[in-house]
């Protein structure tokens, strides 16, 4: 099936917003074996959008429209598509209930323009919005098919993954099925991974091997094209084993929506272990990352943000004279912070982060110098010295990811 | 002048690369008063690119092509455009010198395909590449004008800013200039803001008013079209005053790259004030947000993450019996947390966050119920009860933003 993606929004043409939706959808559609031939961005202009739809009809069987489903007058995507295919807009009952509940909960009055968000094409399949109010739609036309998705990525992504993708797979089944498996790696860069697997990647045909670099991790998607799932899994198992023989030491988990923090929290839960932290340069980002996981309270009681030297002394009871002697950007400081946090929180593990986020250097150490400590109730305190690159935000993120990986390896080594 | 941007590259259609070039160019062109009506992405396919050029000729006077100027066989943008306008490609002398110097410096042999990079359209104006090898081009056709730019942003940006933009300004001088101002609002939703400003937005012509919703904030871009900057600012001042009369209570700052946390950290620094926090449901996200700002150590010594009831008692010294009586999702708990943090950190302000991030309810309170406390060295502790919507991540982000706004208002009220 040939597809194209149309993003609607003047803010995109003014350069205020990057069209990451097209990138996200393209990646997911490629995985489904749907070929995307064009991305287009058009402003909030009904005539130009209609002209574009006429053109898209001549070249694509699946036309995905993103943005312009909101409550304001310049949100016109739905109206233009309804006119284009010649059906009226109707209110979606579930959407209306969600809208009323939203305003009731906020104890505020709904203005009438909000009702625009829950209108959808008559005879279309409505796509509920779990993270927002605007309803999406899959409309099967005589010749072509259209999907309407909201513009904010926080709404578009779950709506595509949870609503649109399963519908597409059901409505347009293919005889040859693509079965994918995602392997996730931490601690190896994309170019190193690709070099280590060069021979496999060059000779790939079925399964295909596609590496993706993400901040501080690399994923490999291996995809088999077969007629049944059983033979797909056999093919994937074999390729995975070959990959693992080469770069298995960096593998941490499976799955598209997985993450290092989820793997670590699961490991803590399974082993009935707990974690705390004392954070300097990361300023709470490690703990906030734990907090993204629902139910983390089982394994994480809380911890400390000791950004200044003074709070390292007053919150954690570290000897001020020691810090004056060795500096806060030091192995010793990381050790003291982790051990004090472990003692105060009474957990099985405690991570500490101290270093130079940048942009300026600190205590004569260049930006990116980070000491991470892992104190253990049973076992010695482990310290790593790291030299992270790029900007302040990347140094902090790299620190959090490295801390998670140290904890993951410590739990695995224990077992 | 009407413009459109065409990005060429199959990697964009596979979702491996985000089309940030279109965003960058759009922003710069908007500043020059050049209106961008379309972005398109097309793969490395000569036929589809030629069809797109034919379409672009019918609707744009300036057509900017990005990508596909490199040395490999799938770099075909230059060849397709040369055929399209009917001129041959010629080698660029300066480009050839730079290419030879590059290979001499690396002491490696140049393969013949590298010569493709320094070819340019006969009769076109070559655009030197300061940060790479591929030569760009401005080609003035009979009816339309074309610019060829390289795909890597590190080459495209300097080539556009240093070569293409001055040429465009010289070749196509405009009398009218666009001047923009961005106003930022917190605490008002996009639909409410648009309703409050409905009359102004309907009657807008010059300046134009464009609202844009971001997570937990709304921005308004007002843009004046004038012949000089002085009259532009007068127009913008008048429109801003009208906007402020209606929704000024929600305004927090100016600028496209600004944020609530930057405004708050600046206010703390200017007034020589300091902040700490005790975070339950946000689990460190407030403090990590402060940590994104370079130099925040002047005003933020550190704080506490008290995720469990036990750490609220052991880290902060809150009475366990009190928490059993009133619950942790309570005004009283927020008050105790903020006041304890203030006392322990010795700062001027302390924020506390306690509530239900979700997905499940807690202590009989629905998800999204959040109490935020602001203890002050001088003045009473302020508490807000909030009912945030959407998912766990949005509830936590809403809490952080609301806490920042409470702090901002407290500092402003003090002065």
TrEMBL record, chains A, B:
- SMART domains reported for this sequence: MoCF_biosynth (SM00852)
Identify its protein family.
Answer: Belongs to the CinA family.
- Pfam families per the record? CinA, CinA_KH, MoCF_biosynth
Protein name, entry field: Putative competence-damage inducible protein
**Entry's Gene3D superfamilies?**
3.30.70.2860, CinA-like, MoaB/Mog-like domain
Matching InterPro entries: CinA, CinA-like_C, CinA_C, CinA_KH, Competence-induced_CinA, MoaB/Mog-like_dom_sf, MoaB/Mog_dom
Q: Which residues form the MoaB/Mog domain?
A: 4-170
Q: Which domain of life is it from?
A: Bacteria
Q: Write down the species.
A: Enterococcus raffinosus ATCC 49464
